[in-house]
Amino acid sequence: MANYFVIGGDQKEYGPVSADDLRKWIAENRAGAESKVRLEGTTEWVQLPAVPELAGLLKKTGPPPFPIGALSPTAKTSALAVTSLVLGILGVLTCGATSLFGLIVGIIAMVKVANSGGALRGKGLALAGVIVSGILLLMLPISAAMLLPALAAAKQKAMQINCFNNEKQLALGVLLYSNDHTNHYPPAATWCEAIQPSVRSERTFKCPAANSSSRCDYAYNAKLDGLDTAKIDPQTVVIFESDAGWDAHGGPELLAARHRANSSVVAFADGHVELILPARINSLRWDP
Q1: pLDDT per residue over 59-96, tens digit each?
Q2: What is the average pLDDT value for the chain, to the nearest integer?
Q3: Which end of the chain offers a freer environment for a tag, N or C, measured as fewer CB atoms within 10 Å?
Q4: Residue 101 to residue 128: CA distance in whole angstroms
Q5: Cβ(273)–Cβ(168) below 8 Å
Q6: How many domains in the chain?
Q7: What is d(CA 102, CA 87) in angstroms, rounded to the nearest whole number?
Q8: CA distance 234 to 126
Q9: Residues 107 and 42 in one domain
Q10: Are 111 and 31 members of one domain?
């Protein structure tokens, strides 16, 4: 089947196209009696009426009202349209980070395709990129609203675990001190200095959930001051959270609530640590 090259209404060359394509353009008034064509493999340009297989379809009209290229099979796919869709899809993996760019590029691509006179195609790709990017951008606030509480809960849990570890080390420091001092507990007034050599780092005295600038965010049960460890009930409170500062010592009046549901981390004489809810505070053992 013969193929032809055509001069469009914009005076640009399109092709090669088949005779069937030319028939379609003639029917849609995109090619007329004034349109020039040449047979593939030749150099001579002739007007369409000179092509026998097409002459009967022609009307006495002027040049096409707009470029043939709008229907030309040689139109190129817009790179911006493809980029828009890719950026939109990547937004799924980047939590929407590329979606804004995908939306902007998609709009630009649609405008360029519309103004290309048929030289570019890809409007559907650009539209898909705009839609995908737009949906992801709309979903970001919803996703954030769902994610933030979970992140806050995870952060709170991490601080609670850190506080547990701190009090375990402080309680162990108390036991190590007593082993080195004839099984007697540290003096309440200087308990931080007393156990500091047995604690790996001074950061152990800092609770991550506390907002204080004090060197220590824990307190010592004052009723254990210098007592013999053999006479202490294992369930007696030893270390607890407090905002009273370095060497703070006392009883439940100093207890600080820093964790979920106003709970507090407390270490006991036998070395174990618990998260104490407000309902249990009155049942804690402070007297040895």
Answers
A1: 544 444 444 544 444 568 889 999 999 998 998 888 77
A2: 86
A3: N
A4: 14
A5: yes
A6: 3
A7: 5
A8: 72
A9: no
A10: no
